[in-house]
Amino acid sequence: MNPQPFLQLDRVIHEKGRLAIMSLLAASPDLAFTELRDTLGMTDGNLTTHIRTLQQAGYIAVAKSFQNNRPLTTCSLTAAGRKAFTDYINLLEQIVQQTRLN
Question: Among 15, 16, 35, 20, which residue's Cα sits nearest to residue 75?
Fold first, then answer.
């Protein structure tokens, strides 16, 4: 088996929590912080840390606004984030195909 594809996996996305966040955002134009937190069962601090990492990588955008006089934080994939996620999924598919051939 060729180990090269494994070495190319994006480590920012590959972490379980961040992969879950990216997967949810890939399926939705944007999601509120509370929706992400509740769907993933993460603590506020844990989710904030993962969001910060993804934001620093340029993969997600964070918007802060108000809804019914309450703060609302929403997250969405950037174009770079969508491309990185697509590349990540394609690489995983390549790895799966490689293991099926062996």
Answer: 35
Q: Which domain holds residue 43?
A: 4-91
CB 72, CB 32: distance < 8 Å: yes
Is 69 inside any structural domain? Answer: yes
Q: What is the pLDDT of residue 12?
A: 97
For the record, the structure tokens of 53 come out as 């990492």
Residue 70: Cβ-neighbour burial (10 angstroms; 0-12, 13-18, 19+): exposed
SS3 32: strand
Phi–psi pair at 64, nearest 5 degrees: -115, 130
Please check whether residue 37 lies inside any domain of the structure: yes
Does 97 reside within a domain?
no
Residue 101 lies in a domain: no
Do the beta carbons of residue 40 and residue 60 sit within 8 Å? no
Give the SS3 label for residue 68: coil
What pLDDT, on a 0 to 100 scale, did the predictor assign at position 23?
A: 97
Per-residue pLDDT, 6 = 78
